[in-house]
User: Fold these one by one.
Assistant:
Number 1:
Amino acid sequence: MIDETKGFTLARTFAATPEEVWSAWTNPDEAAQWFHPEGASTPRESVEMDVREGGRYTYTMVNDADGTRYVTGGVYREVSPYERLVFTWGDPLGDPDETPVVTLVFTPTAEGTHMSFELRGVDGAEGDEYFYDGWDSALNVLGEYLSRP
């Protein structure tokens, strides 16, 4: 089992509906456009998603500077459209009970959607240049994606 005392939370408010934010997380065509930190990319052909409880997903992030590839994936644990999405995140073939867990909560607001992102099972803090900074950067890319006309 992962150590659930470890982890961190990030939050963003997007000028987008919960349906639009949900789609960015669950539609492979959309995820390929933002599911990576700044300075990386996600080839569309690498994204596979079976968005249902027990379904799996996988994608490959590519470091744009040196071409290093990182295959990542997991299992969807909870799927409540437009409200909540829970999934493991790490080695796509890893034991889901030994893999960090991401919980997303989407709350409609007057400005759009407030999204809470929580990663449990790993340490992370601002400036770590790893888990925290990577996800913080990826959520920035998501914000840019959602603000496109």
Number 2:
Amino acid sequence: MNDRLEYFRTLASQKLSLERFQHTLGVEALAVELAPRFGVKEGDAGLAALTHDLAKEYTYLEQLKKAREWNLILYPEDMEIPQVIHGRVAAYMLQILYAIKNEDVLNAVANHTLGRPGMSPLEMLIYSVDLTEPGRNFPGVDKLRQKLYHDLKTGTLACVEHTLYYLKENNKPIHPLTILTYEDLKNGKASKGG
């Protein structure tokens, strides 16, 4: 596993800008730190963290082209908010180009931007850590980290609520999958995760 993690760490360093690579390393560090607390395998957390943004630096047009070609457009809003589909594109690349078969890792990568109802602990971890890794610095991030350290579901719900608040305050479109994720977590139907 360590060799594989090193391979994907090197790949991320080659595919991503320095700033995004540093973010990726921050996601890896926090995800691996928190993984045992929530019953997640550290290797799975590390792999999902290192690969979650592999498709992020394609242009939106390139992402949409790949998403259409690979049948990854699931909602009309995917076309209107193209910045949300890089996770699905990265997961598909991992499966097809790099022979990653771990469904939980693929789901964590695919759903790290929007979440989904019924997220596994690994999916919740990557979703939340993407927002709260040590390099993130915005008002309220410390409170989100505290909630996440204490409880994975509560922390993930707080991260989704923060995202919804941010989108509303900035008049940005809200993807229906984010709302479904929020409702699922609010109703306590997510998978066990702390």
